[in-house]
Automatic annotation (TrEMBL), chains A, B:
Catalytic residues in the record: E319 (proton donor)
Presence of the UniProt keyword Mitochondrion in the record: no
The name this protein goes by in its record: Hexosaminidase
Listed InterPro entries: Beta_hexosaminidase_sua/sub, GH, Glyco_hydro_20_cat, Hex-like_dom2, HEX_bac_N
Entry keywords, A to Z: Glycosidase, Hydrolase
Annotated organism of origin: Flavobacterium urumqiense
Domain of life of the organism encoding this protein: Bacteria
GO MF, any single term: beta-N-acetylhexosaminidase activity
Keyword Disulfide bond: no
Domain Beta-hexosaminidase bacterial type N-terminal: 24-157
Pfam family membership, one: Glyco_hydro_20
GO cellular component annotations of the record: lysosome; membrane
Domain annotation Glycoside hydrolase family 20 catalytic: ranges: 160-480
Length: 675, 675
């Protein structure tokens, strides 16, 4: 028996050298040196912690064991890691020199060395060690019968210190479990800043004990209690993540003002405000001339700040159009009296008053780029968000801020709510190639942040809007700037996307839920096939002018099952490019298989629609795809010659808006084949 | 255009009379009278509330609108229902005479009348009205293009006042979101008691502020804060559900004693206890002779009781084998001194001391059937759970309790953790057909409760263990005792199971998650096909003797993707029975299609296993199914004559335990075909 085992192992070991390109690591480490050996996992695999460790790494190591066991089904013997030096002979040794402090500029580096019988993680802080454990989980490989790690030495550290995700919990409330599972996913991508957008026109989402009116009148019952906030902050801390709250003022204040109309800028003292139910920019704005405004905000900050141990507080400050200010003679008079030339200066006056209110709690003020006016304190952090959609040069404020002496964070280009393909985000570097910046100015660019605005996002579909694209953003912010290969990105994202499921991310599973609902519990294959070539309308086209979707509208529709980077579109793109390069029969078949699939799919959708009203809006677009597929199939298989007019007509049909609020992601390739 | 519309509608309306058998209502209402009309839904559909209403029905009506909109995609115009008489002209009028009180014996009846242009709900209490809204959602029908309700008059009320679900949050912790989504599902099945098992050998799950040690030492960090408990109780209240806490004493106390060893029954004063990590019965038991025991329990009750406004408190009381008591001379002496003949009497002594401690908080004591000893107070509620597995007559204690003057609740026969098929639960009536009971005795049988013990249950797989089988139990407890048609049950359960998804129940979606993990992100079709004929080992065979699975073992395995009532087994059963009755070619094809599917599936599994170690344990069983499928296929298609020895040999193979911890659910039908 012994001999047989050895014989079985020989082919495995001799072929073991894995190539870097085969690894699905993300974000890609700074240095990786693969060697020829393997570390084979068995149920006796154990972890030992040494150094100056703490509950964070004990919990991290325990969670690591459970995830490893869940993947491998090995029935690992070690249950919990609860103190140092528990299992001195353990195969995995983790050493941390000191406790990490959650916040910016902490040492997050680590070294991970995998030897055939031993794995060593060395890190200055436990936060670095947590990152190492994520890398180790990503290193897991398998044969047909066992799981192993390839031997390697990895040294790694982040390029930027701010690698953030913002979630807007105001427009659609996102319960604690949604936040926590996304914190897990962030940690797995080595992200370290969670920016929590807690108040906007559509809702006030944080309990203020002194002012229960806020949540009673402005949350529809959907808000975080202070204890829930604390539990999220603790959960984030355990994963090395800093939480930054945002209370958006002086604009985006409809919810706040619906509870406290007396601090609004409307002329009448008896004016009222209501919570917003639609998308878009609202006019309600705090009155910067009213002392009560600062008194109330001060009390709110006094309640909110202690919940967040980090040193940053986001006050929003964006999209104040000043309409209420312009319309209020009292405010105009105030500007004149105080030598404030325009509304920008008035807003600066307002924002400057907030700085000491936050400093009292040891918090630096952060705001969207509109706060950067000439008299703004250099202590403020500028959050750069505007770009082409706002008719300004993309991320222009970032460079300006760095040059003006502000610390700054980039979100322009990372607006994942726009439903753009991953490549645009991935290739968006926080330090623009063409920017001429001194080392000091560069150092002020702290990093970047993906922004999940939630106009069209609910707990059902939010994960598929955040992931896996945010993993690519995480790589941009962590990895070397030269890591930009798109083929590698796409290949690795497939595995990373799948692995996010083990952290509770629902992007894959909830897609099926939506399709089952649309199908009325019939077979979902045709819907799935169609969803894999459709993408939700991009930028703000799905809800242009905020006219179609209100905050209570259904987001259980086909467009909600579809995602950016439609699954089959990338493969079709590859197939078409290969075919156009070499029209051999294999390449041809890869293309024509897609056409056959879409023709059959259209027939299936028609059949399903007999018992599923929600399929009706899909049929025109599906028919367009079937029509052009039939035509191109005949042409490619030489049963018909190309008729450019006919094909142009068929292509033209794709330009009408689909009632399903999606577009086909294969249009460009259909066009290529039609020429 | 008008004419065309009318013409289009005529065939719909004239064929509109739906039959009762087509409705997928569950639990089936007491009276339903269908008429020939239809109420067609449009986006202008609105709700109006009248009578003595309250926030519960406003929230219920709002949630109803969102669910209806999520299903239909109609973009309903009404956002929130926040007060009485908001929309007097609304098509749906809900009238409640008075506020319901959460608890037993409340009036839960309702009348639902659907007319072609108007729907009326009349109920004594808002709780009845909430039930009516669930029925209305179940009444929703569709054509190919629209959604409608068939006209009908339904009058409905529950047969039993206790329609419960117990969730064991001790053995595997179940976070708040798991509890809340299951409360939603319970409400949709008109269940009204949530029994929350909060402490057992494997964990103490409720924060006691005076004694933080309990959760620090005995929860591994997994427990409910008092605020979380309150939020669950509130959530349940909003859905008409009473929450009953259970603190299991004097046995099942390893966790409690690991924090407070001084009140344990071990002889030594320096004895220690540890939190349980395995399944099975533990010996650690509270010391009933120690005044400190009562002092501590009193303080725990003082902390727990105010969190639960209901009038019931479950103290467990089960499975105390008295081993520690027998081994402790001091305790033996106490028994002698106090004239307690045996451990039963000692336990009664203990339990009786708890009654006033609970009465102080206006709570009646409830316990598992072991508490029913001769001196037990008649105020206690007896929870009947033992049966064949415990070598006693099924539910025997229920009848005994009713005869002895106790109120009683049935759980024997509703142990959903045993992974038995739904029929056994469905046909288990709380009032046994053969029991001779007076009307008064019958009235003491309050109802029944499904019990979700969590030895093998995590947030990933729990929903598929609870649902849809618990829907059948809910029907048993609500509907007329004559509603027992199994074909109707199976047909309706398919739709009900699907609809539970909209409440966030994860049984369907998480199955795919587990299969994706097993497949190592390959195509899951073959695994899905196999999981649809396999069922996890039943009763306690999967973890016999508690030897295989500990509380930290992986529950991400094939057995966790499989469920009771394997999806394809019922259809195969129908196909085989039809074929054996009439061997025509259609019936033959229905059977042989299964065989072809399983033969192909086995080949696919082998192929997938090349890159998926977790598939290896499935292959022997899959091969057995393929082997007998090939043989029976040849026989049925007359390509071979039957060889009984060969077939018996093939069948015999199914009797070895599969390393995948499952069994095929088609064995009996394979055997039928082999004869």
């Amino acid at each position: 028996m012994k001999y047989i085992l050895i014989l079985l192992f020989i082919p495995f070991l001799s072929n073991a050298q894995i190539k870097q390109e085969q690894l699905d690591l993300m974000p890609w480490p700074q240095n990786i040196n693969l060697t020829a050996g393997t570390f084979v996992l068995s149920k006796s695999f154990k972890v030992n912690i040494t150094g100056n460790s703490n509950p964070r790494i004990f919990l991290g190591a325990t969670n690591f064991l459970r995830r490893l066991d869940g993947r491998t089904g090995l029935f690992l013997e070690q249950a919990f890691v609860i103190k140092n030096n528990e299992v001195n002979e353990a195969e995995l040794q983790i050493n941390c020199v000191r406790n990490g402090k959650i916040g910016l500029n902490e040492d997050e580096s680590y070294q991970l060395e995998i030897q055939p019988n031993k794995i060593m993680i060395n890190a200055t802080t436990d936060i670095g060690a947590l990152h190492a454990l994520e890398t180790l989980l990503q290193m897991l490989q398998n044969t047909s019968t066992l799981f192993y790690f390839p031997t390697a030495i990895i040294t790694d550290y982040p390029r930027f210190t701010w690698r953030g995700l913002m979630i807007d919990a105001a427009r659609h409330f996102q319960p604690v479990d949604v936040i926590k599972r996304n914190l897990d996913a962030m940690a797995s991508m080595k992200m370290n800043v969670f920016h929590w957008h807690l108040a906007d026109d559509q809702g006030w989402r944080i309990e203020i004990k002194k002012y229960p009116k806020l949540t009673q009148l402005a949350s529809d019952g959907y808000y975080y209690t202070q204890e829930e906030i604390k539990s999220v902050v603790k959960y984030a801390d355990e994963r090395g993540i800093l939480v930054i709250p945002e209370i958006d003022v002086p604009g985006h204040a409809s919810a706040l003002l619906s509870a406290f109309p007396e601090i609004g800028s409307k002329v009448s003292n008896e004016a009222t405000y209501t919570v917003g139910r639609r998308s878009g920019i609202y006019t309600p704005t705090l009155d910067p001339t009213n002392p009560k405004t600062y008194q109330l905000l001060g009390e709110i900050f006094d309640a909110v700040c202690p919940l967040f141990p980090g040193n940053y507080f986001h006050i929003g400050g964006d999209e104040n159009q000043g309409k209420e200010w312009d319309a209020n003679p009292k405010i105009q008079e105030f500007k004149k009296k105080n030598g404030l030339a325009n509304n920008h200066e008035l807003q600066t006056y307002f924002t400057m008053k907030l700085i000491p209110m936050l400093k009292k709690h040891n918090k630096e003020l952060m705001g969207w780029e509109e706060i950067m006016t000439k008299n703004m304190s250099k202590e403020a952090i500028i959050h750069s968000w505007k770009g082409v959609n706002e008719s300004v040069s993309p991320g222009g404020s970032l460079v300006a801020a760095a040059k003006n002496g502000y610390k700054t964070v980039l979100s322009n280009g990372y607006y994942i709510d726009l439903m753009l393909g991953v490549q645009s985000h991935y290739l968006n570097d926080p330090i623009p190639k063409n920017a001429v910046l001194t080392a000091e100015e560069k150092a002020r660019i702290l990093g970047g942040e993906a922004t999940m605005w939630s106009e069209l996002v609910t707990p059902l579909n939010i994960d598929s809007r955040i992931w896996p694209r945010t993993a690519a953003i995480a790589e941009r912010l962590w990895s070397n700037e030269n890591v930009t290969d798109l083929n590698s990105l796409h290949k690795r994202m497939k595995t990373i996307s799948f692995r996010l499921e083990e952290l509770g991310i629902m992007h894959l599973r909830n897609k099926e839920v939506i399709l089952r609902n649309i199908s009325n519990n019939q077979e979902t294959k045709a819907l799935r096939d169609f969803s894999n070539v459709c993408e939700p309308l991009k930028v703000y086209k799905r809800n242009g002018g905020g006219k179609k979707y209100f905050m209570f509208s259904p987001l259980t529709l086909f467009a909600d099952a579809c995602t950016a980077d439609a699954f089959d579109a990338y493969d079709f793109d590859t197939a078409v490019n290969n075919y156009l390069e070499n029209k051999n029969i294999e390449n041809q078949t890869l293309v024509t298989n897609f056409f056959r699939k879409w023709i059959a799919m259209n027939a299936d959708l028609i059949s399903l629609s007999g018992n599923a009203p929600l399929i009706q809006p899909l049929l025109p677009l599906s028919k367009n795809l079937k029509d052009i597929s039939e035509e191109l199939l005949l042409i490619i298989e030489n049963k018909k010659t190309m008729n450019p007019d006919l094909l142009n007509g068929l292509l033209e049909k794709f330009n009408s808006r689909s009632p399903a609020d999606v577009e086909v992601a294969v249009y460009a390739n259909l066009k290529k084949l039609s020429q």
